[in-house]
Design a protein that fits this description.
With about 400 residues, the protein is of the alpha/beta class. About 30% of the residues lie in helices and about 20% in strands. The site of flavin-adenine dinucleotide has 36 residues, from helix 1, helix 2, helix 5, helix 6 and helix 10.
Amino acid sequence: MPQIAIVGAGPSGCFTAQALAKLLPEARIDILDALPVPYGLIRYGVAPDHQGTKTVIRQFERLFERQGVGFFGDVRLGETVTLDALQGLYDAVVLATGLSADRRLGVKGDDLPGVLGSGAVTRAFNDYPDTAPVSIGEQVVIVGNGNVAVDLVRLLAKGAGEFHGSDLSEAAAGQCGRVRRIDVVGRSPSDQAKFDPVMIRELGRLEQAAIHVHGLSGEGKVVEALEHLQGHAPDGATREIHFHFGWTPEEIEGQAHVTAARFRQGDARLVLPCDTVLTAIGFEGTTPGADAEGNIGPGLYATGWLKRGPRGTIPENRADAQAVAARIAADLATVPAGKPGRDGLLDLVPQAVHYAQWQNIDAAERADCPEGRVRQKIATKARMLAIAQQTGES
Ligand SMILES: Cc1cc2nc3c(=O)[nH]c(=O)nc-3n(C[C@H](O)[C@H](O)[C@H](O)COP(=O)(O)OP(=O)(O)OC[C@H]3O[C@@H](n4cnc5c(N)ncnc54)[C@H](O)[C@@H]3O)c2cc1C
């Protein structure tokens, strides 16, 4: 029986397990994660008010509940367990650990207090375990023209009553409730902005924000969606959103804290007074140099954001997962069986959080949530582990 370990229980790791379970029904597959809980950025990146996007989790639940895939939470590769040890236990090891370090702006002042990366902010809004709260002021500049920028605009511009059905915690709501003005600034012209037009149109439902779009040019679905937003002004709006296109960041100004963000377009300058700058210009990190099928070396593979770089939506990780699974199936056809796999891992990480224990954390989060919310995420690892251990299940 082939033994396969996947490191990372985000969408890429889960899609890979799904594809492997189909191709190698006799294989034993285990997914490890550094956190006590599965699903990676579905839980900690996707916006709390986009619960529909998170429903992909239901298909991953089948892996653990019906297809015999093992979950080993609170096991960090490189700390709790080494790669050598894993390769000693498993015939194939797939790295699916993602890449979520915020890319820096790379201009003077980008390290001033008040400048925050979108990853740090979305983790805080999603109650990533043991994350310090972020402090967002009244005048916010968001740099970036992608969907994470739109998520931030929407979350910051919503009033308290607009989070019905989300899993935004009261603590996170408190962090994003002060904003009065948001300027969204992108380097590219409006017709090249990477926004999803559906997400832009969704801003037209904001109940408390007036929207102004400056410098629209060109045509296409994004431009049409932005035109549709222009002049959105609900009665009694308490917030303003301004979109600007074609401006390159030049400097973040301030002494002890950010006071303004400066942009250029040829000889022209745009100076936006602000107390907070959020950068939503992508993520970074080192990819391990896998080939197109995800192979790094004998018995070692990569998939998802770790393999391709930090770009693309949840469904875009599926094709990668299928390619790497096909390669593993082909490689394992010539590998003699006999590695200990799960039995050896259970000995190596006896404290790991198993799927039944995660289900208890999940149940506690759903049961103990404020009215109007679907979940109250447990925000510390210690508490997650306490709930996992209370149950005594494995
Ligand atoms: C802020 C944000 C919002 C997004 N919103 C959307 C959206 O609305 N819709 C959409 O389709 N896509 C969205 N995406 C993109 C989507 O999240 C990614 O395509 C997807 O999560 C990448 O999957 P992954 O499994 O490669 O990485 P991840 O989801 O990052 O999963 C990696 C997993 O590996 C674990 N891990 C990391 N290091 C270790 C280690 N050393 N040992 C063990 N485990 C480890 C992590 O805990 C994590 O669970 C968003 C991304 C971000 C950053």
